[in-house]
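User: Just a sanity check before I run the rest of the batch. Below are the structure tokens for the first item. I only need the designed sequence back.
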């Protein structure tokens, strides 16, 4: 069984990498920073094509789209929203997720029961829309929408797609006052992603197993 995790060099991605590695599964991490993982910038098609080539047609059982940015943290309507903030946020959090899945789908199809996990956020919920961080929220809502539509389109092939809120996690993105550690988040996500099946495809779940409002 092979699991591939994007953005595995720090934060939740690094903890997921450790959790899957500890389970004895073959675990491949990607990073745009270091040599410990395969190189990948999810916003660049050429980078994805190079990753696919490096994987050399080997099947991927579980793809975890974790890489993401929060460029408008604490932004309000009064903040200086530029077009670049919107474009860069969507490039990583939405288009990057789509490109990653699209590029690696042939390898997921080669697995016996391939799965795709998208790390979205509670901030992508249309129900819990508490305002602020407009670009991040919209990009994560789009990633949730993308995952649910992919779940529909890939059902006939037996490929399950789950969308997850990892908790409010102590990372560079979540900040030091966040509620849980990366180890807690990754341990919960590990269980959730392992439990993902065709019976639960399209789910939007929290790290600790609650169904999240859409
Ligand atoms: N922390 C939270 O409380 C929280 C809550 C809800 C959802 N999330 C989601 O959980 C995921 C991980 O968050 P985190 O807290 O671990 O964030 P983090 O500590 O800021 O780490 C983000 C990771 O994504 C990578 N990344 C960003 N843009 C990329 C790109 N264009 N191509 C490839 N990799 C890229 C980063 O790589 P570099 O090191 O190269 O920048 C880094 O490895 C994100 O999708 C985030 O939105 C986090």
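Assistant: Here's the designed sequence for the first item:
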């Amino acid at each position: 069984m092979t699991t591939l995790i994007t953005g595995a060099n720090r934060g939740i991605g690094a903890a997921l990498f450790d959790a899957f590695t500890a389970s004895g599964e073959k675990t491949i991490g990607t990073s745009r920073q270091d040599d410990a993982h395969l190189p990948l910038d999810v916003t660049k098609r050429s980078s994805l094509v190079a990753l696919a080539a490096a994987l050399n047609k080997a099947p991927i059982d579980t793809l975890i789209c974790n890489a993401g940015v929060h460029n408008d943290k604490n932004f309000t309507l009064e903040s200086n929203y530029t077009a670049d903030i919107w474009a860069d946020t969507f490039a990583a959090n939405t288009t990057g997720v789509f490109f990653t899945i699209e590029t690696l789908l042939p390898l997921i199809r080669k697995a016996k029961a391939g799965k795709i996990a998208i790390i979205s956020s509670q901030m992508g919920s249309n129900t819990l829309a508490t305002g602020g961080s407009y670009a991040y929220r919209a990009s994560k809502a789009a990633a949730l929408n993308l995952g649910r539509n992919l779940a529909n389109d890939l059902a006939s092939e037996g490929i399950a797609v789950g969308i997850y809120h990892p908790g409010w996690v102590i990372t560079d993105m979540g900040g030091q006052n966040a509620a849980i550690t990366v180890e807690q988040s990754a341990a919960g996500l590990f269980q959730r992603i392992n439990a993902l099946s065709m019976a639960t495809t399209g789910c939007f779940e929290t790290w600790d197993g609650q169904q999240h409002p859409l």
